[in-house]
Amino acid sequence: RSHHPVAEMLDLPFLPFCVLLGGLGFVCVAFVSAWCQHWRGGFALDGSAQTFNWHPVLMVTGMVVLYGAAALVYRLPSTWSGPKLPWKVLHGALALAAFGLAVLGLAAVFRFHNDHGTPNMYSLHSWLGLATVLLFSCQWLAGFSAFLLPWAPAWLRALYKPVHVFFGSTILMLSVASCVSGINEKLFFSLKNGTTEYKRLPAEAVFANTLGLLILLFGVLVLGALARPSWKRPDADSPDSCQVPAPLR
């Protein structure tokens, strides 16, 4: 079968892509941690502003990086043959870990708001973030019931699978939007009254804006990998499902 030269040039191997994406995810977590440590005063569990700092770190780690890893489990060629149950468990476990970190992140911000008399759930960022976590919880429960519990019939799994895939990508997109809007909101609140204003673009603003772009790039690359036909796991009833996957390059 002939390929267009441009298509062959852009046909990247999956393993190096995973290494690149893993490195980018690590950089995202490192950036948000460094931002909170260096410019926002570090971390604590006493309800202070340092308690709030756990919120962005846990949300980026859970709802973006870990969730992105969970979404890409079935793109690994080693999952294309043999028992599927271990990969289902890994996919569900990574998603559950992401959800757990998100719940802790929400607890941190609610604790900070309540201890300082700040109203909860008044901004677009808060609405979007909570809606994303709630949708994620429904997605996980529905996926667990349909794909891991033994009583779900095959026709129900086949019917729900495209819905599960669609909302998986949607939740990642919403997670990225929540993180980026949260970074912007925090900068607007923090860079005033005795500090260099946000509009003057101080070093903290440059660093945090760069963090937002890195998170956006991570999300785009995950969505691109999910949409790439050559990296999709063949369906069980597809002729390609009996083929041995090509070796990683």
Automatic annotation (TrEMBL):
Pfam families: Cytochrom_B561. One of its GO terms (molecular function) is transmembrane ascorbate ferrireductase activity. It is found in: Late endosome membrane; Lysosome membrane. It is an enzyme of class 7 (translocase). It catalyses: Fe(3+)(out) + L-ascorbate(in) = monodehydro-L-ascorbate radical(in) + Fe(2+)(out) + H(+). The keyword Protease does not apply. Homodimer. This is Lysosomal membrane ascorbate-dependent ferrireductase CYB561A3.
